[in-house]
Design goal:
CATH topology of the largest domain: Rossmann fold
Strand content: 15-25%
CATH architecture of the largest domain: 3-Layer(aba) Sandwich
Number of helices: 17
Mean pLDDT: 94
Largest sheet: 12 strands, mixed
Low-confidence stretches: 1-14
Radius of gyration: 26 Å
Oligomer: single chain
Helix content: 25-40%
Number of domains: 2
Number of strands: 19
Structural class: alpha/beta
Strand order of the largest sheet: 8-1-10-19-18-17-16-15-14-11-12-13
CATH class of the largest domain: Alpha Beta
Length: about 500
């Protein structure tokens, strides 16, 4: 088959670099030891960057409340308060403790010299009214839930009714994994420094970060040259225009397998998504009772009644890529089709009950394969609990890819795309409206269609995840998130795929 996907995907294929907390600390130390930039100077730059973001986002703000912890994150806050006071703003500082250390102690002294006297927080205290609250309680070092007075202060910040700016990391969020083990600040904007921390973009973190801004604090590019990131954010992409002499055979043939009794909708969504994502031909193998409805609703799908693996074989022979799992079930019919499909050696996307069957009968894939589990399915595939998967989504996604020899898409807020060699990409798009039935069926069809058009498995997964999430974001514009249907994504998906929608 002629490869139609023979030009680079449009837009930047390298997204924002994401680093672990350990990598971020190493870069911070390199700036101090290797470039001779004092730690206090980095703290001053961080405070100035945070204040600049605050003034840019809330230019009318006149009264600030800065909440400081005893560490370097608190030091950033103390210096921000001093700079804001010098800038003519009314500033109050609430601190968890007066026992700041090192550069943070110097920052506190500067705050006092600027005329801002910090007052210590008490568990049953109240916060003064402010136009903006600044969270500088904890930075990257906190891996556990805030307790006692700190937890009470976090609760007060969240209940203050004012917009919140988080300095580097919202307090209570694990910047390495995205885990939120307990109380955590809900920020409207998070300004993070030097490098983007990977945990800010997945798991529970997106519910707390608001808009994330990165400020490199004026550090030179040379600092980062020998510091490869742990992961990257996906960049917006589309496929290039088709050749003018293209025909349907150039664009691949997807066979969608599933739709046991009562689940025709799942396989229809999968098949229709494959069509809308550009597959030249899409066949559906399903139960006989669903054929009339599929033909009436979407005649472009070539629907076939399949009562077992023998009837599936001719369809497998004609298809180039398989979309296996939506509505498949785990009964005798679904299991028999699942075995025949996997044994065919065809490139495939595996979802839903296709994944649950894989958890019962594990195997490594020799053919190109993309697995698209949600956290519950991922837990079954790894023999773990959902809590363990969500505690470190990066490790879970990489473990899935390594164990099964496939590209693994760990779905959820900040979906992750992991390859067997360890590469990992994070999706920065999507919204809570997409937490509804059928969204996963759609993603399966999209990724399968991209495979059929010539993308490699990693390319298809990255592009498909990004298109799916971006289509979800376009679909809620003007109408809101609640009530979003999976089929609402099909029209914006088509525009995005062709590069004609932002």
């Amino acid at each position: 088959m002629r490869r139609p996907y023979n030009r680079p995907m449009t837009a930047n294929t390298q997204g924002l670099a994401l680093h672990t907390v350990e990598q971020a600390r190493a870069l911070d130390r390199r700036a101090i030891d290797g470039l001779g930039i004092a730690g206090f100077e980095l703290m001053r730059r961080a405070a100035a960057a945070a204040l600049a973001a605050l003034r840019r986002r809330w230019p009318q703000a006149q009264r600030l409340l800065v909440c400081c912890g005893p560490g370097n994150n608190g030091g950033d806050g103390y210096l921000l308060a001093a700079l804001a006071r010098e800038d003519g703003l009314r500033v109050e500082v609430v601190e968890l403790s007066a026992a700041a250390r090192g550069d943070a102690a110097l920052a506190r002294e500067a705050c006092v010299r600027a005329g801002v006297a910090p007052r210590q927080w008490e568990d049953d205290g109240t916060l003064p009214h402010a136009d903006v609250v600044v969270d500088a309680l904890y930075g990257t070092g906190l891996r556990r839930a805030p307790e006692g007075a700190a937890a009470a202060l976090v609760a007060r910040i969240n209940a203050a009714g004012a917009p919140v700016l988080a300095v580097d990391v919202p307090s209570g969020v694990d910047a390495d994994t995205g885990r939120v083990p307990g109380a955590a600040v809900r920020a409207d904007v998070t300004v993070t420094f030097i490098v983007a921390k990977r945990g800010l973009y997945t798991g529970g973190a997106p519910a707390h970060t608001g808009v994330v801004e990165l400020d490199a604090l004026g550090l030179p590019a040379a600092l980062f040259r020998d510091a490869p990131p742990d992961a990257r954010l996906l960049a917006a992409q589309a496929l290039p225009p088709r050749a003018r002499d293209a025909h349907k055979g150039d664009n691949g043939h997807v066979l969608a397998i599933g739709g046991d009794r009562g689940t025709a909708g799942a396989i229809r969504l999968c098949g229709e998504a494959a069509l809308r994502a550009g597959a030249g031909l899409v066949s559906v193998a399903t139960q006989a009772e669903h054929i009339a409805a599929l033909n009436a609703a979407r005649p472009e799908l070539m629907a076939h009644a399949v009562n077992g693996p023998q009837a599936l074989q001719p369809l497998l022979a004609r298809a180039g890529v398989l979309a296996l799992g939506p509505g498949l079930g785990q009964g005798a019919w679904g299991h028999a089709l699942w075995l025949a499909a996997l044994d065919s050696g065809k490139p495939l996307v595996l979802d839903a009950d296709g994944l649950n069957l894989l958890a019962r009968d594990p195997r490594r894939f020799a053919q190109p394969a993309v697995l698209t589990p949600h956290p519950g399915e991922a837990a079954r595939l790894l023999g773990a609990t959902v809590a363990q998967v969500q505690a470190d989504r990066f490790a879970a996604a990489r473990a899935l890819a390594a164990r099964y020899g496939a590209v693994a898409v760990l779905k959820g807020a900040g979906s992750l795309v992991a390859e067997p060699d360890g590469r990992l990409d994070v999706c920065p798009w999507g919204n809570p409206g997409m937490a509804s039935g059928g969204m996963g069926d759609l993603l399966t069809g999209i990724v399968a269609a991209l495979l059929a058009q010539g993308c490699s498995a990693p390319e298809a997964a990255r592009l498909g995840v990004g298109l799916h999430a971006r289509a979800g974001d376009l679909a809620v514009r003007g109408e809101g998130e609640r009530g979003l249907l999976a089929s609402d994504l099909l029209a914006p998906l088509r525009r995005l795929l062709n590069g004609i929608a932002a």
